[in-house]
Each structure stands twice: as structure tokens, then as C-alpha cells.
Design a protein that fits this description.
The structure holds 2 protein chains of 2 kinds.
Chain A: E1 2-3, H1 5-8, H2 18-27, E2 31-36, E3 43-47, H3 58-69, E4 90-93, E5 99-108, H4 117-125, H5 133-145, E6 149-153, E7 161-166, E8 172-174, E9 180-182, E10 188-191, E11 196-199, E12 203-204, E13 217-224, H6 226-235, H7 241-246, H8 254-270, E14 273-274, E15 279-282, E16 291-293, H9 295-302, H10 308-317, E17 321-324, E18 332-335, H11 346-357, H12 379-391, E19 395-396, E20 402-403, H13 405-411, E21 429-430, H14 435-446, E22 453-460, E23 463-465, E24 468-470, E25 473-480, H15 497-508, E26 516-519, E27 526-536, E28 539-547, H16 549-554, E29 562-567, H17 568-571, E30 590-599, H18 604-612, E31 619-628, E32 637-646, H19 655-671, E33 675-676
Parallel strand pairs in A: 4-7, 19-22
Antiparallel strand pairs in A: 1-3, 2-3, 5-13, 5-14, 5-15, 6-13, 7-10, 8-9, 10-11, 11-12, 16-18, 17-18, 20-21, 22-25, 23-24, 25-29, 26-27, 27-28, 28-29, 30-32, 30-33, 31-32
Chain B: H1 13-33, H2 37-48, H3 54-63, H4 71-100, H5 103-108, H6 119-133, H7 152-165, E1 170-171, E2 177-179, H8 180-183, E3 216-218, H9 224-232, E4 237-246, E5 258-268, H10 273-288, E6 294-301, E7 304-313, E8 322-323, E9 326-327, E10 336-345, H11 347-353, E11 361-368, H12 369-377, H13 390-393
Helix pairs in contact in B: 1-4, 2-4, 3-4, 7-12
The chains are: A alpha+beta, B alpha+beta.
């Protein structure tokens, strides 16, 4: 919204320059965002809050300035020649809920032509299109004093009457913008005896507008119900200067002044003569209830005791009337000016007082506090995982929370949550998996020539449930790197499955568990045989591995991509591993290597289970060291070098003991069909 | 018979020399006997182990036992012996290493006569030959283990939260998918109120059959968590609420349909507007440096009254509006940056959570973490935060 400081100064004699005026207005919340132009052509770009329709015009802002500088406010000039007699026209309000007041005036024998320069220039300065002298008069009055008005070609109104009513089903109106609109019984309309002639408070009708041929005009200044206007404006997607003000609350007392002001402007620019007195139909009063003001409350909320004189002065200057109460409880009864529909409670007055006193004048203090900081339940777990992921070299990423229907179906089986007004088909449902977002980010990097990427995202997914929605927390990791030459399937860092599994193991290690098993029953978007699920004490806590080649193909991922998903809603109940110190061994460890050939079906898990099953207390660890295929190892078999480590906490181990245990291990491995290599 | 450290009968220099010669003879003999690495380790430990090694023993039996007047001489000798023993242990190890080298390498290198090894000469050799041959081009870049980078927005959220935690605020979180009631109605946005237009909302589909207050939407601010917390808790309340929020803003350089907020709420008896100002002024100094100033301007939010917008003096240009000769862009040359909205909790809000507005008062504030990160790091496009580009992310490591 634009305002001219020159125009504003017609109502208040501010002694400061435009720049200072702008600053001072901003500091009381009448924000001037920008100043352009110089001298008479200077323009303020305003940002007025939705609660202050009274300040969306020059006069209203001048009132604020008068309160800031403690200066008198000059009234808007709307003197009219005396015109006794009735206007011989009827205004009837059939819907008093929608329209509380409708004031009209008739001016006859006008000559419609372009507005005089002074008017046109001002309108152009505040970004208003000039139309003709009658229409411009309503606009001028709007920007000057804020009340929306409308002018009709009187001769096109049928039946000599205005009727304010709800529209009938099936009724239509062509509005000033040339659009034919279907009306519903919820729309409030201005009608003549036959047809709707304006969508009340929003826009006038095309067929009754002022044209070159117009000789006689009817001026409308009304007070419409804010909610009714807002609904109409929304229903017809028609946001106008008038609707903007009516839906925020107009000034009930201003209809006559506005009507007079428009009439005065028309008489001045279009000639003609007033036909009788104003017709002022009042269907109901819009009374603003007086508000009790306790100075103790002002102090309790603001924290500083302001002078009663200053409080009195601020409120009076803004148009409030303060009546001191006998006994001092409350201290004052405050009558609210008709233009301040936003002021209904004591706290609203407190804000007015603080605002005009100046926020920056209040002291900065810190409140006392008698409580304690309570940790969020998962804070420590979240932090543990995040720190580990960063240390493992994963960059923290954040992706958008929307995905496409197609991705939702591919990457989750949970019932999805759709948006009613999505920004696009690709962003039409709430993400039910972090995987598509992760794949997009990996692809984004690959497409820009970054081929070594490790990312993680911690965030919620969204699922529909029987009684609403749930937002389980997940972590998704994504990794891709160019294939290394001579990379073995296992045992070297190759950016592949086992690197990822190692990272997952590192993360899961932080949590208390009795068992941690891996199986291959992964979701369809994983590469079968190159992906795994982690089951911690039977609960599925993670799923990870290479992404399915079909998905890679569809997404044009030009190198292997690995994904891990951690289901925090199932992992966190495990609790963080309680750390207990274990005495360090004082006796040396003994290692023994076993080189075996196994059939491919013999997994490490089977081998490990068999060896652990021997129950050797001094066996500290049993790990694979090297895997080899090909060479002289027959097809369908693989060679595996295993290392056992024995150690006692009580004594140095004897050679014969170790030999005995090794023999047991050999036997167990042979039991799995393994052949000891020569 | 292995060498054992004798106690000295008298503490004359002569006795010391003799004992020292015996020790050195034993050292050389044992050194020669070392054949492999295991034996070398035993040899090393026997002479150098802190517990009961020969060096430790001579320290205890010779030096400590010596009378005060003999201490300087003994001290010198024991030190010299210490260096000698250490050298010998090192030399013995080198001899093993060289022995492992193929013959031609040994030939091409300096021939080492292990039997009559001269320690001083060997030290020189080490200095000039071996050490030199092992020297590295230390100007080559280090081999880095990759470290992950914190996301600038998450990092900013953590920083803000931490400032308020130190002021006694506990972290609270809440759902992203909210009801109309928590996102609007209980925050004093009545149905059909124009203030709702200022927060373009993304709605969940198929909600028409529900009453308006139960309809689901994506929360447009983290303020619903204020209501959820106050419903479950009596004053005093001090919470800080980080989280994702959504608005139906088409994506561009400064808008994203998803972004992050950190809100705070303090409710107690006797919390005042001055406290709001003081708390935020303190927080901004903690976040942006003790020299930043704050300024408050009236604003409008349905759930606070009085409401304010807080500005901080530009932490990029220090409030001058200029960076050298260039205009400062983050503050649009004004020297001030709008950083958050705040205000005293509107009494109507207390009505929704059964607090007595005559007894308690409080303040709330909220800021956009993405915007603060943008200002702090000079990022020119908010979209960079959400596309996972590691060239961008790794700048924040």
C-alpha cells in the first residue's frame, strides 16, 4: 500500500521531514518499508497489519502521527451545499446481519469526464488507475479516509430502489471486471427492484456502472459484516480494496462522512447538483463496548510504571475517551472510537499504550525462574547417532517432505497422506519414506559430476493411521562412490555393501541388545542378495544395501547406490548401551588361524554359530580375515581364513590347552563340510 | 649366567666405572645374541622396561643409593648409560632389519659390522643417511579421513536451542501434521479471520466431513506446540520448540514450502514485556556477538499482544549499512535486520489452555532458522539447503 506524505500532511502539521516521519511511524507499528520520490512526489510504501484497517489510508495514518507528535488532527473537508428535501429514492436493508448501515446520496446532472489534474496525480502517485471523475471520487475518498464507496448510474437502477439482500440461487451478476459470476444465497448483494447491481462490499456491477452517458449518480457508503464479505471475496476469488477493508472491519460512523466526501468531490469535478438529503438506512447499530482499564494491569504486563498523564494523552490522541471511575477499580472506563474494531479488551489498550510510548524505551530485564531444564526423551539417542554419522563421514542433509504418489507406492507400504492443495504431482503426498528424497539427492550430485557422496537425513515420515496420523522418526543414509578396481567383495574398503554394513553396525552398537541378527528379507526396492535387514532382539531396526537395478535404471543413477534406513521408533525403545568397565587382561592372548574351503551355502553366520556353540570360555573372538574365490578353489566353493583369539583373565594359556581348543574348532568347521587347506 | 645389576659397595668414581664397564659388556653380549624380533622385544624390555628393567635398576641401586656428594657424578654416568642402552637397543633392531634386506641392498648401503658397532658412528649414519633417506615431502597434502558436515540449518537450530537451554528452556516438539484447532483456533485465529491469509496453508486431503477444528493441515508455525505444552503443564513454563513448518509458498531463492522455525514460550506469574525484551536481547548477543543491539517495533500476531518484531543491528556490517565501499545487502543498507516476531501471550490463548490471565502472563517468540542461516552464512538461495549438494554442504564442515 502506498501513501503520499504530502497528502498526509494535509491532516497533521508534522514538523519533521519525510524520512523522520517514516521512522517515527514505523516505530509505532505503522511500518514504512520504503520511501521513493522526492518532495511532493515522495511516496511511502506501507505495510499495515491486518488488524489495522483504520490505518490503511492517509487520514488514519495522520491520526497516528498526531498521537506521536501530540499535534491536532484536522478533519476531512466534506462540506456540502444545503439541499433540503427528500431524495425520492428508497433504500431497504433486507439482511441486517450482512449489512448494518447503508447511506446513499444522489447527484443529478453530472458531466462524466476525466478527473482534474490534482485528483488524477494523487491517485497515480498511490498506484491507482484513473477512470472518470465519478469513479475517481470514490477512490480518492477511499485513499483519503479509508471508507470504501461505490457510485451507480442512477438511471440504470430499476424501480427507484436499492435493496440489500442475499442472492437467490441461480442469480448471476456481471461485475465491473467483466466477469459473469454465479451467485449463491450466501452472497450478499446490492439489488435494485429487479436484479443484483453489486456484489456487496466486493465489486460493483458492470451493467450499472458510470459511463460517458451517465447523467445522474447514486453514491453508496455502507457497513457490511466482515465475515460475510470475506466469504464472498474468497468464493469468487475476488480480492479488492473494498473487500480488504470490509472484511477487516470498517468504520460504522463513517458512512455519512464518506458519502458526503464523495458527493463533494463529484460536485467539484463533475458539476451537477445534490438531490435532497442523504438517505441513511440503519438496520442495526454496531456498538463497540467500552473497556475497563486498570493501571495495575498495564504495569503487570509491561513491567514499567508509566505516568498516568502519558497513558491518558496517548489514548485520547488516538480517539479513545477515558472516563475516570470512582473508587479506581477500574481506573478508567474507555470508550472505543468507531474505527477501532480491533480494540475490544484491556490488553488491546495496553498494546496501544506500549506502542505509542515506544517499545525501545522499555528496560531490558531477565525474569526469575524456579524451574529446571527437562531433556527431550530421545535427545541423547538422536545426538549419539548424529555425532556417529558425522564422524563416519556422512554429510547431514535435509530434503523436502513431499514425494510423488508413485514414489510413495514404490518405497513404502504404509497408507499415505495426500495433500489437498499440492504444489505439483511430484509433491502431492507427505513422504512415507526417506528413501526417494535420498535417491533424489544422490542423483542430484551424480548429475553434477560429484561421484563420491555420503549423506544422511534424520527426519519423520508420515503415515495415516486408524485414528489420524503418525510421524515415526527415521534415519536414511545414502552412499555412492565410483567402483574401485580389484575391489574384493569383502575385506577392503570399497564403498560397497560391507562398508555400509560396517557403518550400520557402528550405529547399532550404541544400543542395548541381547541379539542382533541379519537376514535377507529386504523390501522390493533393494537388490536381492546385496541387502539385509537388521533384527535387534527380534525387532526390525534397520534395512540397508544396494538399491535395486530397476530403480537405478528408472532414476538414471550411473553408479551403484547404497541406502540404509534406521527405524528409530523401533530402535530407541532398546535404550542406549550402558557402559560397564571390564578389567583389562593381564595375560597374553594367543591367536590361531584356520584356512578352510567351504561351499558357498555355508555362511559366516553358520560358521560363527557353530564355533560359538562350542562354549569355549577363553575364546575372545572369532573373525574372518580373508576370503578368496577362484584360483585352485573349486567353483561353488570359497576359501576362508579365520582367526581365533584365546585369552584368559586368570592365567597364561598353556600350549596344550590351545591345541585342544583348536582341534575342537577344526572339528566344528569340518562338521559344516569345510575342508582344511593344506 | 645372565647379568644382574650389583649393589655398589662404595660410591667412588672408580667403582662406578667398573660397574659401568661390566654393564656395557653384558649389553653388547646380549645384543649380539638377539636373532629375531621376538628376542629383540625381550631384550628391549629387559633393559628398558620401566618396571624392573636394567636402566630402572641402576637408577634405584646406583643413583638413588649414592651419597649426596657423589650424586652429580653418578647422575651424569647413569644418564650416559641410559643413552647408550637406548642406542644399543635401537641398533640391535636396525641390525635385524638390515639382515632381512636382500643382499644387494645391503651391499649398496653402508656395510654394517654388527660385531664391532660404534654407537657414535652409527648415530651419525642415522642422522645423515638413514633418516635422510626416510624423509618425506611434508608439503604433500595429508590423507584425510572424511568427516561429515553438519547441515547449516540444523546447526543453526542447535545453536539457538542451546542459547535458550542455558536460560532454563526445555526442548519440546510436536507433530508436523496438525489440526486446525492447534494451528489456528487455539492461537486466537478465529475461523474465517483474515489473519489466516497471512499463512498460506497446505491442507491434508479429504477432511471435508470433519468439523473445521479437527481438519488436518501442515502446521504453518511451531506455535501449536505452545498450546499442546500448556494443556499438559501448569506454569511456570519455559520451552523452546524447534521444528519443520510448511507454507504454500512457491519455491524461489527466498521461499520454500518447507522450512524450519524455533519458537519459545515463557509463562509464569509476573512475566513482563521488559522481560521479553531482556531475554531476546540476551539471546541475540549470545548468538551473534555481544556487540549486537536489538530494537523492537510493534507488529501483529493473533496469539500475542502486545506484539513486536525484533530487529538486530546487522551482524554482517556491524550496523553501518556498508561493507567497505560496497552497500551491505543482508540489511539492505539499513544497518538493521528483522530477525523474529514476538509478543506477550494474548489472554485469549490462556482461555484455550485453562490458565488464568489475571494471574499469569508470559511471552512467546519465533524465528526462521533457515533465514538466520541464510543471513549468517551469506547463502543466496534457500533451495541450496534442500537438494543435498555436497559441494554446498561440505562448506559447513
Amino acid at each position: 500500500m502506498k501513501l503520499s506524505p504530502t497528502w498526509l500532511r494535509e491532516f497533521v502539521d508534522a514538523k519533521v521531514d519525510d524520512r523522520r516521519l517514516a521512522q517515527d511511524l514505523s516505530s509505532v507499528g505503522i511500518a514504512v518499508e520504503n520511501i521513493s520520490g522526492e518532495g511532493k512526489n515522495a511516496v511511502f510504501e506501507m505495510e499495515i497489519g491486518t488488524n489495522r484497517p483504520d490505518a490503511m489510508n492517509h487520514y488514519g495514518v495522520a491520526r497516528e502521527a498526531s498521537a506521536i507528535y501530540n499535534l491536532p488532527l484536522r478533519a476531512v473537508d466534506s462540506k456540502l451545499p444545503a439541499t433540503p428535501g427528500n431524495a425520492e429514492f428508497t433504500v431497504e436493508i433486507a439482511d441486517q446481519g450482512g449489512c448494518a448501515r447503508y447511506t446513499a446520496r444522489i447527484v443529478r446532472d453530472v458531466s462524466i469526464k476525466p478527473s482534474p489534474d490534482a485528483i488524477a496525480k494523487r491517485l497515480i502517485l498511490v498506484d491507482q488507475r484513473t477512470i472518470n471523475n465519478a469513479a475517481d471520487a470514490t477512490n480518492y475518498a477511499l485513499w483519503e479516509m479509508g471508507h470504501p464507496t461505490h457510485v451507480f448510474d442512477l438511471d440504470l437502477l430499476e424501480g427507484g430502489k436499492i435493496l440489500v439482500r442475499r442472492a437467490f440461487t441461480g442469480e448471476t451478476i456481471k461485475t465491473l471486471d467483466g466477469v459473469e459470476r454465479k451467485l449463491t444465497p450466501e452472497d450478499l448483494v446490492i439489488a435494485d427492484a429487479v436484479k443484483p447491481v453489486a456484489l456487496a462490499g466486493v465489486m460493483g456491477g458492470f451493467d450499472t456502472m458510470i459511463t460517458d452517458k451517465t447523467r445522474n449518480v447514486l453514491i453508496e457508503a455502507a457497513w457490511f459484516d466482515p465475515a460475510t464479505i470475506r466469504k464472498s471475496s474468497r468464493r469468487h476469488a475476488l480480492h479488492t480494496d473494498a473487500s480488504h477493508r470490509f472484511e477487516r472491519g470498517a468504520d460504522f460512523d463513517a458512512t455519512t462522512k464518506a458519502c458526503d466526501r464523495v458527493a463533494a468531490l463529484i460536485l467539484e469535478s463533475a458539476g451537477g447538483k445534490l438531490a435532497g438529503l442523504a438517505i441513511d438506512a440503519v438496520a442495526r447499530q454496531v456498538d463497540l463496548a467500552p473497556v475497563a482499564l486498570h493501571l495495575s494491569d498495564v504495569h503487570r504486563i509491561l513491567g514499567e510504571r508509566l505516568e498516568t498523564n502519558e497513558i491518558f494523552r496517548i489514548l485520547q490522541q488516538l480517539g479513545f475517551e477515558l472516563m475516570p471511575e470512582r473508587g479506581g477499580d477500574p481506573d478508567f472506563t474507555v470508550h472505543i472510537p468507531s474505527w477501532r474494531l480491533d480494540v475490544e479488551r484491556e490488553i488491546d489498550l495496553v498494546e496501544e499504550i506500549a506502542r505509542l510510548h515506544g517499545y525501545d524505551k522499555f528496560a531490558n530485564t531477565l525474569p526469575a525462574y524456579a524451574g529446571a531444564v527437562v531433556e527431550a526423551p530421545d535427545a541423547e539417542k538422536d545426538n549419539k547417532l548424529r555425532t556417529a554419522l558425522l564422524a563416519l563421514g556422512y554429510d547431514e542433509a535435509v530434503s523436502l517432505t513431499f514425494i510423488s504418489h508413485e514414489d510413495a507406492e514404490t518405497f513404502s507400504s504404509a497408507p499415505v497422506i495426500e495433500l489437498a492443495n499440492p504444489q505439483s504431482e511430484e509433491a502431492s503426498v507427505m513422504r512415507s519414506s526417506l528413501v526417494p528424497g535420498m535417491l533424489n539427492m544422490l542423483a542430484y550430485n551424480l548429475n553434477r559430476g560429484t561421484d563420491s557422496v555420503r549423506l544422511f537425513e534424520a527426519g519423520s515420515v508420515f503415515e495415516a493411521t486408524d485414528d489420524g496420523t503418525s510421524e515415526p522418526k527415521r534415519i536414511c543414509m545414502g552412499a555412492t562412490s565410483p567402483p574401485l578396481q580389484n575391489a574384493q567383495g569383502w575385506g577392503t574398503h570399497d564403498g560397497g555393501f560391507f562398508d555400509l554394513k560396517g557403518d550400520v553396525e557402528n550405529l547399532l552398537r550404541a544400543f542395548e541388545h541381547k541379539s542382533l541378527k541379519y537376514d535377507a528379507q529386504t523390501a522390493d526396492y533393494y537388490y536381492p542378495g546385496r541387502s539385509a535387514r537388521a533384527l535387534m532382539d527380534g525387532a526390525l531396526v534397520a534395512q540397508f544395501g544396494q538399491i535395486h537395478p530397476n530403480i537405478s535404471a528408472v532414476r538414471r543413477l550411473r553408479q551403484n547406490v547404497f541406502i540404509a534406513e534406521l527405524y528409530l521408533d523401533r530402535l530407541f525403545p532398546q535404550g542406549l548401551r550402558a557402559v560397564r568397565y571390564q578389567a583389562l587382561p593381564r595375560y597374553p592372548a594367543v591367536e590361531r588361524d584356520f584356512s578352510f574351503v567351504f561351499e558357498d551355502g555355508v555362511t559366516f553366520e553358520k560358521i560363527q554359530t557353530a564355533v560359538i556353540g562350542l562354549g569355549l570360555t577363553e575364546l575372545r573372538s572369532f573373525v574372518p580375515v580373508e576370503i578368496f574365490r577362484g584360483g585352485n578353489v573349486p567353483a561353488g566353493n570359497y576359501s576362508l581364513l579365520l582367526r581365533a583369539r584365546f585369552q584368559s583373565y586368570a592365567r597364561t594359556l598353556r600350549e596344550d590347552e590351545v591345541a585342544h581348543w583348536s582341534a575342537q574348532i577344526l572339528k566344528a568347521l569340518e562338521g559344516l563340510g569345510g575342508k582344511l587347506r593344506a | 649366567m645372565a647379568y644382574t645389576v650389583p649393589k655398589l659397595k662404595d660410591h667412588s668414581a672408580k667403582a662406578l666405572d667398573k660397574a659401568s664397564d661390566n654393564l656395557l659388556a653384558a649389553l653388547e653380549k646380549e645384543s649380539k645374541a638377539v636373532k629375531n624380533e621376538e628376542e629383540w622385544k625381550i631384550f628391549r624390555d629387559r633393559w628398558m622396561a620401566r618396571k624392573n628393567g636394567v636402566l630402572t635398576q641402576i637408577n634405584d641401586l646406583w643413583l638413588k643409593a649414592a651419597p649426596v656428594e657423589a650424586k652429580p657424578v653418578f647422575g651424569q654416568k647413569v644418564n650416559w648409560l641410559k643413552k647408550h642402552v637406548e642406542g644399543m637397543v635401537e641398533v640391535t633392531n636396525k641390525r635385524l632389519l638390515f639382515a632381512q634386506l636382500p643382499a644387494k641392498h645391503v651391499k649398496s648401503k653402508k656395510k654394517i659390522k654388527v660385531e664391532t658397532i660404534d654407537l657414535d658412528a652409527f648415530a651419525r649414519d642415522l642422522k645423515h643417511g638413514l633418516i635422510a633417506s626416510q624423509s618425506l615431502d611434508i608439503t604433500l597434502p595429508g590423507i584425510r579421513r572424511p568427516l561429515g558436515s553438519e547441515h547449516p540449518v540444523i546447526k543453526t537450530i542447535h545453536e539457538i536451542v542451546s542459547v535458550f537451554r542455558n536460560l532454563g528452556y526445555s526442548v519440546q516438539e510436536g507433530p508436523v501434521i496438525e489440526t486446525d484447532y492447534y494451528n489456528f483456533e487455539a492461537l486466537n485465529f478465529p475461523p474465517n479471520h483474515p489473519a489466516r491469509d497471512t499463512q498460506d496453508t497446505l491442507f491434508i486431503a479429504c477432511q471435508e466431513s470433519k468439523p473445521q477444528r479437527e481438519r488436518l493441515l501442515l502446521r504453518t508455525h511451531t506455535s501449536p506446540v505452545q498450546i499442546r505444552t500448556m494443556e499438559n503443564m501448569k506454569p511456570p513454563v519455559r520451552i523452546v520448540i524447534p521444528g519443520k513448518v510448511h507454507r504454500n509458498d512457491p519455491p524461489d531463492a527466498s521461499h520454500s514450502p518447507m522450512f524450519h522455525q524455533v519458537e519459545g514460550l515463557a509463562v509464569d506469574t509476573n512475566i513482563t514485556f521488559c522481560d521479553l525484551k531482556g531475554t531476546l536481547d540476551h539471546a541475540m548477543k549470545a548468538l551473534f556477538g555481544s556487540s549486537v543491539k536489538t530494537s523492537f517495533r510493534p507488529s501483529f500476531f493473533p496469539f500475542t499482544e502486545p506484539s513486536a518484531e525484533m530487529m538486530v543491528s546487522c551482524f554482517i556490517c556491524g550496523g553501518s549499512g556498508k561493507r567497505g565501499a560496497e552497500p551491505c545487502r543482508p540489511c539492505k543498507q539499513t544497518g538493521w535486520i528483522e530477525i523474529l516476531g514476538c509478543g506477550m501471550v494474548d489472554p485469549n490463548v490462556y482461555g484455550f489452555v485453562d490458565y488464568d490471565p489475571k494471574k499469569v502472563s508470559g511471552f512467546a517468540f519465533g524465528m526462521g532458522a533457515d533465514r538466520i542461516a541464510i543471513l549468517k552464512y551469506g547463502v543466496d538461495d534457500i533451495q541450496l539447503f534442500f537438494n543435498g549438494d555436497v559441494r554446498f554442504l561440505e562448506q559447513f564442515g
